[in-house]
């Protein structure tokens, strides 16, 4: 990517904690003339399994290494000693330019009913991050999470981090943003936190786009594929196969924005046929509840929020607007703001999990732009569209 603005004599060093498949790092690596990612850490553990089953591996570190170019350290950040890790990277305190940290959001999200009663132990990772800031003393610190980080029942974890940042002399920006207002073709409300040690911060790190991107804008030109079949020119343009029952259910849902509620309310479909097409819980649900389950995306609207459970049609509005299948990995990643050539490693289910867990690179690129402007202390115009990386 070529940017006709002054470049630093030495690229600014970046470390990414909870690096996942590289969503946050990808936005910074898009400006490789400015940033050098020198370290990343992720434990590669998904949410806990049920009963005695162990949590599955996210397989995200292989995806990160393939796309970003360095191998993340597989470690538990609750245990990893911040100062020892800094020394491993060959850094003195104060030498790091940007520390990225996006701890798990599962324990904060209001969609998890358990979070209204129990403070998930993983929420402590937010406060734990403060120790890494203290050890590294980076010029900039960046965090992304669900909105409940700032306004939810367990916001005391963020308050601890905020108090520590201010004690260390950082100016802090923290607010909630609807990311579809900033070019992401998806409803996604997220908390963004930026702290800086050397200068003040603007009112907002993001600038609203003149118009929202729609599902049509992003995936309409992709070639048609059948469920379970990968396109010959792009192995990421693939979705899971499905049973004949699930396929019949999807086929019955109206194109371009339809849902199971449309099938339930269709007077032209017999009760016997509805019993065959729909699942029992749909008949017990209140009218209007869970409208996104088995729902199709709408061409002229933004997509529904992509979550880590996006790999199944029964988990949300993830069915293609016209084709009778789940969105492919490529379609899902484009709606999550990834570059068009991003490659995801691991089994198909892990690919979807990685995408849903990720910070949208389209947004992290804009955060990177803002840091470039602040570092150079001048107003510059930078492209916001992420292009394929050079080989």
Keywords:
391 residues; alpha/beta; Rossmann fold; DNA Methylase, Chain A, domain 2; 2 domains; six-stranded mixed β-sheet; 14 helices
Secondary-structure blueprint of this entry?
Layout: E1 12-17, H1 23-29, E2 35-41, H2 60-68, H3 82-88, E3 98-101, H4 124-136, E4 140-146, H5 148-151, H6 156-167, E5 171-178, E6 189-196, H7 215-219, H8 244-252, H9 260-264, H10 271-277, H11 280-284, H12 329-335, H13 348-357, H14 361-376
Parallel strand pairs: 1-2, 1-3, 3-4
Antiparallel strand pairs: 4-6, 5-6
Helix pairs in contact: 1-14, 4-6
Helix content: 25-40%
The geometry reads as elongated
Can you tell me the CATH topology of the largest domain?
Rossmann fold
Number of strands: 6
**Which stretches are poorly predicted, pLDDT < 50 over at least 5 residues?**
none
User: How would you classify the helix and strand content by structural class?
Assistant: alpha/beta
Q: What does this molecule look like?
A:
This protein has 391 residues and is an alpha/beta fold. It folds into 2 domains: 12-213 and 359-376, Rossmann fold; 223-327, DNA Methylase, Chain A, domain 2. The protein is built from 14 helices and 6 strands. It has a 6-stranded mixed sheet with strand order 2-1-3-4-6-5, with helices on both faces. Helix 1 crosses helix 14 and helix 4 (124-136) runs parallel beside helix 6 (156-167). The longest helix is centred in the last third of the chain and has 16 residues, at 361-376. The mean pLDDT is 89.
């Amino acid at each position: 990517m070529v940017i006709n603005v002054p470049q630093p004599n030495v690229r600014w060093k970046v470390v990414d904690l909870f690096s996942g498949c590289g969503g946050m790092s990808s936005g910074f690596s898009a400006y490789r003339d400015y940033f050098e990612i020198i370290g990343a850490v992720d434990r590669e553990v998904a949410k806990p399994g049920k009963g005695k089953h162990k949590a599955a591996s996210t397989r995200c570190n292989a995806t990160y290494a393939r796309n970003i170019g360095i191998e993340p350290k597989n470690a538990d950040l609750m245990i990893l000693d911040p100062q020892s890790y800094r020394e491993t990277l060959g850094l003195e305190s104060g030498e790091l330019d940007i520390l990225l940290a996006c701890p798990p959001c599962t324990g904060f999200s209001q969609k998890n009913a358990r979070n209204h009663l129990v403070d998930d132990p993983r929420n402590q990772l937010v406060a734990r991050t403060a120790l890494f800031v203290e050890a590294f003393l980076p010029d900039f610190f960046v965090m992304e999470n669900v909105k409940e980080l700032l306004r939810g029942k367990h916001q005391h974890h963020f308050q601890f981090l905020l108090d520590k940042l201010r004690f260390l002399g950082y100016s802090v920006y923290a607010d909630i943003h609807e990311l579809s207002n900033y070019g992401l073709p998806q409803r996604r409300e997220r908390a963004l936190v930026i702290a800086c040690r050397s200068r003040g911060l603007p009112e907002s790190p993001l600038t609203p786009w003149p118009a929202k991107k729609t599902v049509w804008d992003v995936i309409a030109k992709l070639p048609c594929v059948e469920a379970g079949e990968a396109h010959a020119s792009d192995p990421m343009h693939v979705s899971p196969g499905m049973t004949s029952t699930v396929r019949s259910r999807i086929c019955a849902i109206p194109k371009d924005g339809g849902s199971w509620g449309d099938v339930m309310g269709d007077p032209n479909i017999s009760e016997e046929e509805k019993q065959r097409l729909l699942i029992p819980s749909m008949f017990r649900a209140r009218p209007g509840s869970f409208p996104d389950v088995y729902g199709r995306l709408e061409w002229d609207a933004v997509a529904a929020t992509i979550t880590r459970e996006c790999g199944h049609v029964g988990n949300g509005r993830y069915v293609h607007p016209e084709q009778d299948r789940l969105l492919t990995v490529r379609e899902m990643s484009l709606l999550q703001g990834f570059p068009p050539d991003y490659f995801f490693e691991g089994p198909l289910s892990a690919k979807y999990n990685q995408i849903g867990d990720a910070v949208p690179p389209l947004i992290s690129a804009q955060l990177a732009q803002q840091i470039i402007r602040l570092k150079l202390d001048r107003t510059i115009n930078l492209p916001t569209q992420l292009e394929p990386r050079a080989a």
